[in-house]
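Can't paste images in this forum, so I'm doing it all in text. The chain is below; anyone willing to post the predicted C-alpha cells underneath?
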Amino acid sequence: MRRAAVGLALALGACAEPSPSESTVRAPRVFALVTATPSAEPGQEVTVEAVWYDPLGPREPPAGFLWRVCPALQDPRGCALASQGSTLDSTGPSARLPGATMDRDVYLALCPSGVPSLDPLLGHARCASGPALETLRTVRVDPAPTRNHNPSIERFQLVQGATRRALGPTTVLAREPCAGADCALGLELQPSPDSAETVEGSPERLVVNFFTTVGVVEPSRVDSGAFRAVWRGSAPDGAAVRVWAVLRDGRGGVAVGEGRFSP
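Text version of the structure:
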C-alpha cells in the first residue's frame, strides 16, 4: 500500500512551491552526530562528527562548536550541566572521546557564527544572536564481538519516471527532458544488504529521514517498505537543490547520503 501511495504521489507531483515541512531546511540544522562505530569496545577512543548545514553558507566569524561528554543520563539536558558533564578539547565539527568502560552521552552546541557560550547552571548554550543549536547522542560500550555497526547506504538516487540516477555531494543532476507525470521527481535510498542486523532473532527496523533546501520531501520520514519519497517544489533556472537522506537503525547507528540536482 505504501509503495502504491508513493507511486501515485510521484505521478501527481506539482511544480508549485508547497508549504514548508519538517523536511525543509530553512535555517541551520544538525542532521546527525556520526561515529565510525555506534558501539565501542571498552577503552576504545571514538570520534564524533557533526553533519550539519547552514543555508546562508560560511559566515564571519565562522561557525563555533562546543562539545561535552557525560555518563549516559535519563535526562539528556543534564550533559550541559557543570555538575554532570565535562567539556572536550575541540572547537571544530568533530571531537574525540577518550576510551571508557560505560555508555556516555555526547552533547554538541553549535553557533553558525561565533563560539557558543554555556550557562552551566541552566544547561543551555547561546550564540551572540540567540540560542545555540543543541543535539545529543549516546555512544555505547559493548564488549561483545557482535556489537552494533552503522548501517550503510548502497544507493541514494534521484528518481524521474523510470530513470534512476546516483546522487552525490558534488555533481548537480539536471532534470531530463520530460512531459507530464514523467517530470515528477523523487528520492530513493537503498541500504546495503547487511544494514539491518539481527537483534534477538529479528532484523533491525531501519528509518530514513529526507531533507531538502528547496521545496518539500513527502513523506519526510519512511520507516518501512521502499525508502522512497516525492520531492515537490521549484527553483530558479540553474539553481541547485541540496538533499540529504539520514539512515538510522534505532540503536545509535547512522549513515548520511547527500546529493544535488537542478529541477
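The two ends are 28 Å apart (CA to CA). Residues 40-141 form a domain with the Immunoglobulin-like fold (CATH 2.60.40).
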